[in-house]
Amino acid sequence: MATSDSAPLPNIIAKLIAQYGCGPVKFSGADEALYERHLLFDSVTDVAAADARDRFEAIARSVRDVLSQRWVQTEQTYERKNPKRVYYLSIEFLLGRSLANNVQNLLLDPVAEQLVREKNLDRLHLEEQEPDAGLGNGGLGRLAACFLDSMATMQLPAMGYGLRYEYGMFKQSIRDGWQQERPDNWLRRPDPWEVARPHETVELQLNCSFEVRGGALQPIENRPSTLIGIPFDRPIVGYGGNTINTLRLWSAAAPDEFNFQEFSQGDFVSAVAERLGAESLTRVLYPDDSTSMGQGLRFVQEYFLVACALADIVRRFRRDNSDWRMLPEKVAIQLNDTHPAMAVPELMRILLDRAKLGWDEAWDLTVRTLAYTNHTLLPEALEKWPVEWFRLLIPRNLDIIFEINRRLLDEVRARIHGDDGCVSRISLIGEGPDKHVRMANLAIVGSHSTNGVAEIHSHLLRTTTVKDLAELFPERFNNKTNGVTPRRWLLLANPPLARTITDAIGEEWISDLSHLSRLKPLAEDKAFRDTFREATRETKVRFVDWLKSRLGVRVDPDSIFDSQVKRIHEYKRQLLNALRIVVLYNRLRENPDAQIQPRTFFFAGKAAPAYQLAKLIIKFINSLADTIDNDPAIRGRIKVLFVPEYDVSLAERLIPASDISNQISTAGYEASGTSNMKFMMNGALTIGTRDGATIEMAQEAGEENFFLFGLTAQQVNDSRGWYNPHWHYDKEPETRAALDLIFSNHFSRNEHGVFEPLRESLLTRGDYYMHLADLRSYLDADRRLIDQNADPEEWARKAILNVAGSGKFSSDRTIAEYAKEIWAVERCPIT
Which of 58, 402, 449, 674 could form a disulfide with 39 if both were Cys (CB 3.0 to 4.6 A apart)? Predict the structure, then answer.
């Protein structure tokens, strides 16, 4: 999307708008050189002296100028028509870069291509001046971003609410094989997409304040303080530019006051302690939760998000509606996991204390307004916050929680006589030395809908994780299998394949992915298979070139690209993948003359800074890579590469280039997955367990076109009492040989014993995630997959059938189900 110093960008865009019809967006003819105007007046930069970042900012602001009128018209339409609106609350939104996506969704790509051709510009270099927005970490945030795209494309009246983190999770680099973390200051340069709204700030009251004690910020009880929430809006451009919704992010600040006497006397830190505490609140995404202080910061972040969002939602509701009883008819609030679960007591507080409603009416309105999405079955991920923190910071909300719980348990006891265990499990309060609030229970009890994100996940949620609550409120539980937006993950990420699909079946698939089913008969067409393979190789070559320019690493585009990219966690089992590679490596050492298809194993993902075993797994993968690279008998036949700094932009390049997708979580632990859908949509074949949405993907494409293996969720659960990983070590020679090689320091010649914690995890502590139980089955599936790869025609056929079967996994389908079955919200075309 770059332009030259003299390109008349406004005229070109105006011409394109007239030709392609991006809705009734109008462009002022008064600016003859919009791009140059932004360089001069925003950056105060001589056009001739502008660097790449200056040019990016000017181009982005020019695009924002084009969409601004439509953005305003969208909000004006909602105010005029007063439809029921969706408010999506999420602690993270993993947006990625916005420039290319916004240009695409506004149908301005021909402008970009024309400028790049005419001026011989480096489009990639300019796009990479934009950092990935540091607003999310993994699947939760990326799903939220896909949902916003779908809601705008489908012309639903919707708005996202999140936090404006100054720093993302962290920037990842690799040093001596170890993950290194450094600050991700993504807002170091101005973000051209955001618009500050200081006139719409929100004031929040906390029951404590802060002072500096011993060099640390400490709370002071019963001395109320004020937090200021400053909103920053970002446009969410629906495909075609017809609707432009808003993502509102909140930044924390303190009131414009401090202790001037302390400041004048030189005690600067104490004088501005409150300001330091407030501004630290949204400083960083995911503070280290291995400490009580980190957990406390997260707790306050969650309340800050909820309180700011609800204050804003209520303001919007009351602007057009005087009757509080209309709240569920005009407002649908979706809680994306438990992070916004404080919305239950906060909305009750507003209805009780501000609206002066009685308890029963306030509770009815709250439940009918709120809905909750559960994203995990892992006990440690079901948030529990100390009661003491509620008492210290928001005691009124704690009083409300206690009253909700009293009434709930009275109802339970009336239904279930003598089952104290059930009462204890349903209670919102976990008893013990340190009482805590169970946020998942609170979200379920305080909302009218609880959905899982894949069929198996929703089933396990109802029958295992919150079984008692599901039996108490069976009508509230449902499934909404996740999806991803095809605009970013196919149209934008994989132009060669997108072009091939459009040439074959037309462009309707872009906004209705079910049209991909029309590719099924083409899987039997040799000419189309040839075209498909050509597109696949073109995408691989593009990725190889980018990898060479970014990391200086050369990989063979004709090797099989075998990928696993996701957050590093034991249940996601990157270690199982590494064990597979060790076995394959051992086979080549024993039979150096074996004929194999060269294969490149890609890993990418971040480990939480306090998650030591996950960081050790990264170290092991890199040590494995170095050992293979330095073995002349193996080099060039298999290669392992851990690509650092996994983010949306890297995923957009690696996923489309991959031949094989590894989805190998322990069955019953992955809620849904969305990387699995992105790989499938781009033609990779899946080797995976029967977990999450992978089960449904195999049903859509045909299990014969997947390579499934391993224990089922039921088998994992049933074997808990007797599973012994030593059986596999003793009975499976290749398993034993692989482990012996690792623990003989073969991959750690200069760091003896560094991988001993892996031995403890796999053998001493019982291999909780059952790596060894599934390794043999994984290797068998791997053999079937590689045998299939020897037949390029059959491989292409299966890949095409995977693409053709991916239509269900569009976020448009998911959002349509939310809109109809949970939110009861309808399209609101912009006029």
Answer: 58
Give Cα separations from 29 to 10, 40, 108, 827 (angstroms).
7, 18, 18, 32
Under the phi-then-psi rule, with left for phi > 0, alpha for psi from -120 to 50, and beta for the rest, what region is 243? beta
Cα–Cα distances in angstroms (integers) from residue 18 to residues 108, 115, 464, 507, 813, in the given order: 11, 18, 56, 20, 31
Q: Which helix (H) or strand (E) covers residue 665, if one does?
A: none
Contact assessment for residue 163 and residue 305, using Cβ atoms and an 8 Å cutoff: yes
Q: Report the sign of the C-alpha dihedral through residues 14, 16, 19, 20, in that order.
A: negative
3-state secondary structure 588-619: HHHCCCCCCCCEEEEEECCCCCCCHHHHHHHH
- 214: part of which helix (H) or strand (E)? none
Q: Which two tokens stand for residue 319?
A: 């602007």
Structure tokens at 327: 């709240």
Give the mean pLDDT of the chain: 90
Q: What pLDDT shows up at residue 277? A: 63
Give the separation between CA 710 and CA 826, rounded to whole angstroms.
43
How far is it, in rounded angstroms, from Cα 338 to Cα 341?
Answer: 5
pLDDT tens across 688-706, in order? 999 999 999 999 999 999 9
Question: How far is residue 545's CA from residue 561's CA, in Å, rounded to a whole number?
Answer: 14
Residue 22, pLDDT above cutoff 60:
no
Whether the CB-CB separation of 511 and 239 falls below 8 Å is answered with yes
How far is residue 496's CA from residue 89's CA, in Å, rounded to a whole number?
Answer: 35
Q: In this model, does residue 455 exceed pLDDT 50?
A: yes
Which residues carry out catalysis? 375, 566-567, 572, 674, 678
Both tokens assigned to 426:
């349903």
In angstroms, rounded to a whole number, what is the distance separating the alpha carbons of residues 33 and 14?
A: 12
Report the residue count for the chain. 831
DSSP assigned state of 208: E
Q: CA 740, 744, 746 angle in degrees (round to 5)?
A: 105
Report whether pLDDT(556) > 80.
Answer: yes
- What is the C-alpha to C-alpha distance for residues 456 and 669, in angstroms, rounded to an integer? 10
For 119-129, write each residue's pLDDT tens digit: 566 778 889 99
Neighbour-count burial of 335, counting CB atoms closer than 10 A to its CB (0-12 exposed, 13-18 middle, 19+ buried): buried
The CA-to-CA distance between both ends of the chain, in Å, stands at 29
Measured distance CA(305)–CA(366) in Å, rounded: 18
DSSP state of 819: I
- Pseudo-torsion of CA 762, 767, 773, 778, nearest 10°? -60
Let me know: does 161 contact 89? Beta carbons within 8 Å.
Answer: yes
pLDDT-derived band at 281 (thresholds 50, 70, 90) equals confident
The structure tokens 């306090």 sit at: 610
Report pLDDT digits (tens) over 719-747: 999 999 999 999 999 999 999 999 999 99
Total Cβ atoms within 10 A of residue 415: 11
Contact 659, 684 (CB under 8 A): yes
The answer to whether the CB of 478 falls within 8 A of the CB of 499 is no
Specify the pLDDT at position 199: 95
DSSP state of 165: -
Residues 360 and 356: their CA atoms lie apart, in Å, by 12
